[in-house]
Input
Amino acid sequence: MLFRPLTAAFAVAAICTTTAAAPTATPPTEAQVRELVTKAATSKTCEDCVAALRVSREFARDSVTAAIELSKSMCPNITKSPADLCNGNIDKQMPVFIESVFKADFDRGDDKAICHYVTDNCPPPPVTAGTLRFPRPKPKVLTVPAHSGKLINVIHLSDWHVDELYEPGTEAQCDRNTCCRTFPTTNTSAPPIRAASTWGDYHCDTPVKLTRDLMQFIKKEISDIDFGILTGDIPPHDTWLETKETVVPIEKHSYETIASFLGDGVNVYPTIGNHEVAPANLYPTEKSGGSAQWLYNSLSSQWSPWLTPSARLQVRNNHGAYSTSPHRGFRIISLNTNFCLDDNYYLFSDLSDTDPNHELRWLISELQHAEDHNERVWIMGHGAPYQTSCLDNWSDLYYQVVLRYSPHVIAEQFFGHSHVDDFAIYYEHGNEAGVKNARTAVGMGWTGPSVTPYKNLNPGFRMYKIDTSSWNVFESVTYIANLDQAAQWDAKSETPNWHVEYSAREAYSPYVPLSADEPLSAAWWHNVTEAFENDPGNPTGPFQEYWKRHSKQSTAYATCLANTTCPQQMICALRSATGVDACVAAENGFKKRGDGGNGEAVEMVQETRPWSMKMCGNFW
Ligand SMILES: [Zn+2]
Output
């Protein structure tokens, strides 16, 4: 998941605001910035947000240092976060935010766009990406390979978020992104409100002990794993503390742990999350200045047990993305989707660049090669293009790519980042209303459930059964442990109760029949969402069953009651493979997809929360 700091960001942003317009003769005063930022944080209107951003940019133009200090002074109050967390996040995030805001073109509407991406207080900017041109037109006759009937096992791990500094017995209910540690503000003389168990907590990241127990379970219980996929985010959510020096060893230890339990014969195909880099989320573009080459070099080396020399060279030279063929006729394309995430402030430096680092152009060339050579392709990434946090232009272009190469080339797509168990269906006519049905469903995006219980979720992972000719999913089995029992495991010296949560085929085929020789296709999933519409409040009906699976049966997660708009919004989101789709009402009347990620259910998204959390520390 990501990391959303931003209230103070505004102060900073505000601070950081201005670029294209010439600086005014007299810079705004600190009092003026405070007043406008406070007003924006209170009213949450687009107009006030833009005013605050603009005055902040003018203020920052006069002195970046003063802007950062002002941001720090406002952050604890506005975000209700501890000062050390505010200061750490602002020191790490704000310089890039300010530099990017300096370069942004407010006359073009970047001010409103930034307010949208950072605070949700402005409506989404219009999609301006236009229509893609492909190397060759889509073939008139699409040949999808027949299923061979031979199935292999593939495991999917996502959002590992291990916390090597996790301390059992510490406070699990704190005012930070991640708890279960001793922080400078921890009152060690008082007993914790809720003491961290040795196995984890709903407000904390994953203890090392839980990751090892999970891998032990996989080693013991899941036989014949052909390969694994790992959809990003190894480090914990302590974004205010992270540096290159802290994240690299955590990543190294985790990849080594996974490799040692799975053994030499099982390759894992990883992808880059927003937390792999430090500071979190900040992946420079070729145009923005800055460099994450240190990370690409590090991952290229750390992934050496699993990737070919050619794939490792791509990781190093292609901003972490690579394309590789684990089996004849089958290709995995691993994207660095941080070039679409709105937490990557480098992207604000040029919002007119709809394909930063030409990643989509590279993806198209790989897919064209696959089409020309009759290969089946899986696309994987961390943040999904269908999640709200993906910039709308990128999300729209990606959808066009999916439609051009589906269903004959792209077999499946896998992502992570939201931590919940989720999916999204791609349709032939994209967003067009009224034509989303089983016949027009052409592609699936699978969101892998997180290993971390953060936030309010049970830890889990996935195993798929995959056909070795079509490379389609024939079965999806999700495993979990019920973390609300952690105190009992400790008291009785037991280990977590890892078990099958559900098989998608067994869970939904009673509602939408599926014969043994048919995959869990987009058309089938569309019909499952139609079954969800039927009596969504029935506690034993398919929608409420789905809702429990969304949080991996967490007792700490929100409800999605039938007498609210929640079920309808969630079903809309499942049929919306682009962030542009409007399913969930945001605070100011406009809508967004609302993927239910970030530990928040729909109704939680709508409730009041501190303004502009991005800057100050609500980082997924
Ligand atoms: Zn993430």
The two ends are 4 Å apart (CA to CA).
